[in-house]
Amino acid sequence: MSDTLEKPESDSLSSLKHLSISEIPLLPPSRPNPPKTFSFFLLPAELRSRILSLLLCPVSHFTVDISEENHRTSTARLNYFLVSKRFGFEAYHVFYSTHTFRIFPTNYSFIIRKRTVPLLARLPVHYLNVITKLELRLGPAWSDAPKYWVITNQLGLQHCQNVRTLKIFIEVDPSGSTFKGYILNARAYTDFCGDLLRQIMERLPLLETIEYDAYSNVERDGPLMTRLLEETRKGMKKITWGKERDWGDSLAGKLEMARERAKARVNAEGVTRD
Q: Which of 263, 46, 118, 89 is nearest to 176 (CA)?
């Protein structure tokens, strides 16, 4: 008997030996297993909101305004609203409750137009209802404020019932020491901004905080900031400070205030000598 045992051939293999190549049946091509899927809505609500935030709000501190660049920055994200009715419902809640929306446009191409409809007036009421942050940018067109910069029912502020934070950014203060001696009625723009802020606060019943920030040429103790802070305190709103100037009570904020006062004294002395 042989030392090694030969493995018996199976009947299928032995039968194939007697067939020609053309007679051997071909096996169907193998197909990869389809990927496993899951329902997005089986996830917890907190996780769904986090995923939607990554899709719709990839950039933090993003301010939405009517602009010629919106087709690049916002249009693609808004397409997620069209996935399904339920998906769109959750998507618009995340988008409009996370971003900051500008009350009046500051893009120059819209400022020079006589008839411009602000962003808030273009949005449906159910979008306005979920907005939590608004921005008012002061300074553009300060010499001749556009006529549509008024608080009316058409603007839609009365529907922004969930706004908790109003951000005010000042680009220029024409009543400050920088413009002293060059403008005849510098107080007019200060009064205009103060009245505008008061009317905005009256339309936002749940407003809690007003955050102030500005460019380097704006003085914290200048006429415009002084008037705005007065209106804020009358409205009993909390005051916070943005990152551009750091006007808070920190050491950096106090040093910034000291520099502003020194610059104001130098400007005042220069005007007096002239």
A: 263
Backbone phi and psi for residue 218, each to the nearest 5 degrees, phi listed first: -95, 130
Which residue type is seen at 147? K
β-bridge partners, 199: none
pLDDT band at 199 (very low <50, low <70, confident <90, very high): very high
Which residues, in sequence order, are CB contacts of 253 under 8 Å at separation 6+? Answer: 241, 246, 247
Q: What end-to-end distance do the CA atoms of the chain give, in Å?
A: 126
pLDDT-derived band at 40 (thresholds 50, 70, 90) equals confident
57 or 14: whose pLDDT is higher?
A: 57
Are 172 and 215 within 8 A, CB to CB? yes
DSSP symbol at 165: E
Task: Determine contact, residues 163/206, Cβ cutoff 8 Å.
Answer: yes
Q: What is the DSSP letter of 76?
A: H
Query: Which whole-number Å values give the CA distances from 205 to 185, 201, 208, 230, in the listed order?
Result: 33, 7, 9, 18
pTM of the predicted model, to two decimals? 0.75
CA–CA distance, 15 with 11 (Å, rounded to integer)? 6
Return the structure tokens found at 132. 């939590």
254, two tokens: 């106090």
Residue 245 CB: number of other CB atoms within 10 A? 20
Torsional sign, CA 39, 40, 43, 44: negative
- Closest Cα to residue 146, out of 110, 98, 200, 97? 110
